[in-house]
Each structure stands twice: as structure tokens, then as C-alpha cells.
Amino acid sequence: MIIKQKPLLPHTAIFLLSTMFVGTVNKMTEEEITWDLTEMFSSPKDPTINRKIEEIREKTKKFVEKYQGKINTDEFGAKEIKGLLEEYEEIMREFDRVETFGYLSFSANMTVPENQQIYNMTKEVGAELDKNLTFVDLELGKRVYEKKELIEDPILENYKHYLEKLMKKVPHQLSEKEEQIIIEKDQNGIRAWSQLQSQWLNTRKFEVEVEGEKKVLSYGEANSLLNHPDRKTRESAYRAIYTGLGKDEILYASALRSVVADWMKIVKRRNYKRAVDGALIANDIEYETLENLMKTV
């Protein structure tokens, strides 16, 4: 089962996708890491990308016509839920391939226009699919919330954990229209802040002394040296990075304030008891576990 569960902190979601796909590493040194993404698509300009997106859109359209408004009914039992989830999973799997290619291409070099274009396009298509498929979480969540014994059916064994998490979200879900508005808001809100931070950071350079030799490195290169076996190199990288980042404190502080303010409004809108509850549900963590961890630390 690979049904994609997006964290409730949207600005972190895309960063997790790279762990779900195979990117062959050609060279892995302190100086360069190059992903071979040709197993997915030949390049950001590969015409098969647009064809694949249109195929996914068509599958999504048929899926919506087949299931929307029909899930939370007495006739929709465990067998029907399994069929729905298998089709839903197939759509998610196919789009993950496109979305991951866009993200990794952009991450490899954020200054290349084609990489920016494919990344922006996959973000827009992702938001479009999320909006069209909003009804799944709402209707299916309500169905299993009201008839909890469905989750225990052996036919849904592979999806039990997913359904249990979905059930926890039900008391905090909004109307379909409101959920869609939040998706649109996030697209040019906290997701945009995250992209700005990434692109801005990609333009920064850091002077690090690597085993006695001074080098001017990108953030990614400098950050990789924090685990260097040479202590002086690690210390030099640490000082260079955090001194450099400190110069942009106004930018980061403004972004952080905006993200936190947005999160708190959502917390209130969804009627969470604590500000952290939404993130705990998304990450499948009990509040007591977090509390015990904080006491230990």
C-alpha cells in the first residue's frame, strides 16, 4: 500500500517524496551528487510528461464520476472501499512519478529555467488533483467514522492503518469547498514561502576551510561537511553556514511568522485542542509520546 498521506504542514510535504522513488546516484562525493532521473523521464522537456499528466487527469475524472457522492452510503461496504482505494492508489502512484521528477529536477539545480517550469507545473497539477479528490477523505472518513467495524474487515487489512489515521481527522475536517479553498490558499501561501526559502538559499555561497583548504561552496555542499570526519572542517562549515544564514534573518523571520500565523488560523478553524495536534495526527504520534520525549530532552 502506497497511498500518499500528506503531512498537515504542507511546506514539508514535497521534501518527503524523494524518499519514495528510485533516483540512481552516479557520483556521491563531497563535491557533487548527481541523480540519474532518466528512469522516470528523459528531461524536464520530455513530451511524455504532458501526456502522462493528461492520462492522470482523465483517470481522475472517471474516478470522480464513479465515486463522488456514493461513498457514505449503506451500500458502500468493505469490498467497495477496497476497490476505491486501489484505484485511488493507482492515481497517486502515477502522479508521484511525475511530481518526484519535478521536485528532484528542481532540487538538483534551482537556477535552470526548465527545472523551475517543471517544478511549478507539477505543483499546480498536484493542487488540481488534490482539489478534485478532496471528497475521498471527507466521504470515506465519515463512512468509517460512523461504521468503525468496517476497518476490522480482513479484506481491508492492507489499508487498516490508513483508515485509522483518516478516522482521526474526521472531527477536524471542514466542508469540501472549504478544504478546496485551503488547498488553493496553500499553493500561493506557505508553499510559496517554502519555495522562496529554497531558491534563496540556493543562491547563497559559504567560505569553508576543508582540511586546511579554503573553498567557496553552495549551501548543500557546505551542509554535507557537517558530518565530515575532520573536526576543524566540521567547525568551519558550521560557522560559515550559520553566520551566513544570520545575515538573512529578516527574510527567514518574516517567512516563519507567516507560516506560524497561517498554521494557527488553521488550528482554530479545525478546532484542534492543541496547536500541535494536527501535526501529531499527520505523523501518527500520540501527544503523550511527544510529552515524554520533551521531558526526557
Question: What is the count of structural domains?
Answer: 2
The CATH level-2 architecture of the largest domain is identified as: Up-down Bundle
What percent strand?
5-15%
Examine the coordinates and then state which fold CATH places here, giving the name of the CATH topology of the largest domain: Butyryl-CoA Dehydrogenase, subunit A, domain 3
- Low-confidence spans: 5-31
Kindly provide the radius of gyration, computed on alpha-carbon positions and rounded to a whole number of angstroms: 22 Å
Helix content, binned percent: 55-70%
Q: Tell me, what is the CATH class of the largest domain?
A: Mainly Alpha
Reading side by side through the largest sheet, how are the strands ordered?
A: 1-2
Category from helices, strands and their pairing: mainly alpha
Average pLDDT rating: 86
Give the helices and strands as they follow along the chain: HEEHHHHHHHEEHHHHH
Strand count: 4
* Biggest sheet statistics: 2 strands, antiparallel
CATH superfamily of the largest domain: Oligopeptidase f, N-terminal domain
Number of helices: 13
Overall spatial form: globular
Explained architecture:
It is built from 13 helices and four strands. Strand 1 (24-28) and strand 2 form a beta hairpin. 62% of the residues lie in helices and 7% in strands. It folds into two domains: 10-195, Butyryl-CoA Dehydrogenase, subunit A, domain 3, CATH 1.20.140; 205-247, Helix Hairpins, CATH 1.10.287. It has a two-stranded antiparallel sheet with strand order 1-2. A two-stranded antiparallel sheet has the order 3-4. The model is unreliable at 5-31 (pLDDT under 50). It has 297 residues and is mainly alpha-helical.
